[in-house]
Amino acid sequence: MTSRSCHSVVLAAGLGTRMKSDLPKVMHEIGGLPLVGHVLKVLADAGSERVSVVTGPDMPDLEDLVAKLAAAAQCFVQTDRLGTAHAALAASSAMEMPTDDVLVLFGDTPLVTSETISKVRDALAEGADLVVLGFETKTPHGYGRLLMKDGHLLAIREEKDASDAERQITFCNSGIMGFAGNHALDLMRAIGNDNVKGEYYLTDAVEIANERGLKVVAVAGSEVETQGINNRAQLAACEADFQARKRTEALDSGVTLLAPDTVFFAHDTVIQADVIIEQNVVFGPGVNIRSGAHIRAFSHLEGAAVSSGAVVGPYARLRPGTELGKGVRVGNFVEAKNAKFGEGAKANHLSYVGDARVGAKSNIGAGTITCNYDGFLKHRTEIGSGTFVGSNSTLVAPISIGGGAFVAAGSVITKDVASDAMAFGRSRQQAKDGMAKVLREKLKKAKDQNS
Ligand code: UD1
Ligand code: MG
């Protein structure tokens, strides 16, 4: 990695009118992370020590999100949306501080990698004054085209301003640009708005830099990394490419995916080698799965940690705060939320375990429900080790069931159960000999009289 200093400006003020959404465009998500979050993450990986984010007016949620995702990033508001150069200049006070490299990135281009950003920075380190990251595509519609001559980048032409011949060009602008710090502001300030849209296009920096005899370089990236998102179809296409990338990463790192195309990852899913993942499994954010675990078909996991040897599903749902110890079994139609299962504990069928601790080797019978919510507050259920909770038990929290205790099937447990105690929370069974026959005859007689 270069030792040059770097300031990155992320443009994120666009409304995303073409998304037909009230949400700022860069807050739409890929892999469970807002678009702008992907860009901030990659900038941290790429070693950009200063980051400015340009937001629009009335986007407090976006500012909060940026503060949450990158505490050191500074937000600037672009009051009128007059184009990408105008947006970048909203951060001009930050750009006045001397920096070797100034990068401009778009918040709607989430899949760029730190390796590609390094390529742009390497070109600056080798003496370029302005670097444009381009990409080849069979579908250039909507992108600015790179006008090249003898390997030199002469200008970028926006789709709306391009001639028919220029529209045939398939080498396009990703929107990611690198400026030598001593030229960045001068170039941006020289940009006018003489074009079809009457906007200040950052892309015009290329022609201006050439006029000034500065060194302009185009670097090529892959289409997958550099695709921009302007509408829902592009959002969906980008999500598909992101998932394909995650599947390849998982397979390459030693994870078995029985049907890769049916497994969906979040941006931060961590899965160690020798995990087996069956068909149709969805990972929401915050999942960590350790070597040797097995996730069976049709399971949904979010904010959950799964230890080695644990088996989840089929049809299990692990919600945030779930931690499964080694060898735990959570089977079909079991939902766990904020629940810690000790080593070897089991909940194999049809249960809800929420706000709970289940001790090692305890067994939660089919149909057990922890009643954690009274309509106002959440309450905890504590279950010791080696405890047996019989099927169809209702554990009314707050409640504690000691280690080695036995809860009879069908119990409603409202009082704490001591260790090694046996608890019955159900009405006593009565059986009256011959009574069924008497009842049957009585009912038959009543029916015959009525017909
Ligand atoms: C832009 C580029 C185009 C490139 C494409 C790549 C320009 C003029 N065009 O077009 O060459 O091929 O991206 O995806 O740069 N934004 C603001 N304020 C504004 C306008 C835009 O913050 O006033 C932000 C948007 O939130 C977005 C980014 O800048 O994140 C790009 O704007 P967008 O409207 O998506 O430009 P494109 O038409 O995609
Ligand atoms: Mg765009």
Question: Mind sketching the topology for me?
Answer:
Blueprint: E1 6-11, E2 29-30, E3 33-34, H1 35-45, E4 50-55, H2 60-69, E5 74-77, H3 84-89, H4 92-95, E6 101-106, H5 114-125, E7 130-136, E8 145-149, E9 152-157, H6 164-167, E10 171-180, H7 181-189, H8 205-211, E11 216-221, H9 223-226, H10 232-252, E12 256-257, E13 263-264, E14 270-271, E15 276-277, E16 281-283, E17 288-289, E18 294-295, E19 300-301, E20 304-306, E21 311-312, E22 317-318, E23 322-324, E24 329-332, E25 335-341, E26 346-349, E27 352-358, E28 363-364, E29 369-371, E30 381-383, E31 388-389, E32 394-396, E33 399-401, E34 406-407, E35 412-413, E36 422-423, H11 435-450
Parallel strand pairs: 1-4, 1-6, 4-5, 7-11, 12-15, 13-16, 14-17, 15-18, 16-19, 17-20, 18-21, 19-22, 20-23, 21-24, 22-25, 23-25, 24-26, 25-27, 26-28, 27-30, 28-31, 29-32, 30-33, 31-34, 32-35, 34-36
Antiparallel strand pairs: 2-3, 6-10, 7-10, 8-9
How does this model look, in words?
- The protein is α/β, with parallel strands linked by helices and 451 residues long.
- It folds into two domains: 6-221, Spore Coat Polysaccharide Biosynthesis Protein SpsA, Chain A (Alpha-Beta Complex), CATH 3.90.550; 232-423, UDP N-Acetylglucosamine Acyltransferase, domain 1 (3 Solenoid), CATH 2.160.10.
- The protein is 23% helix and 29% strand.
- The N and C termini lie far apart (93 Å).
- The mean pLDDT is 97.
